[in-house]
Amino acid sequence: xxxxxxxxxxxxxxxxxxxxxxxxxxxxxxxxxxxxxxxxxxxxxxxxxxxxxxxxxxxxxxxxxxxxxxxxxxxxxxxxxxxxxxxxxxxxxxxxxxxxxxxxxxxxxxxxxxxxxxxxxxxxxx
Length: 126
Description:
The chain is α+β, with helices and mostly antiparallel strands. The chain has helices spanning about 90-105, 105-115, and strands at about 10, 15-20, 25-35, 35-40, 55-60, 65-75, 80-90. It is built from 2 helices and 7 strands.
């Protein structure tokens, strides 16, 4: 069994989501979510994703709120398709942060994640 290597709090949460490719959009739902990524349920959708490619993802927690991110496709397994968040605007980050804090077992730990960035800006290829 592989040891868990996640450094970010991940919450199990089902929310409507959409993935946008160059020519299509696909509706799906989240399975779990963190400040740095998402696992999407793609079992019912036939989406041909390319590892390492970036995709626009919109997550809708309701009430007209949308979390808009650019995510790099990491892998797809029987559990779902995993994406690493690369870019999002401030409003989307604030909404994501509030959702993670609300559902996290210890909201203070989510705040502490902001002290240790998940990436180094100089390593981003934006």
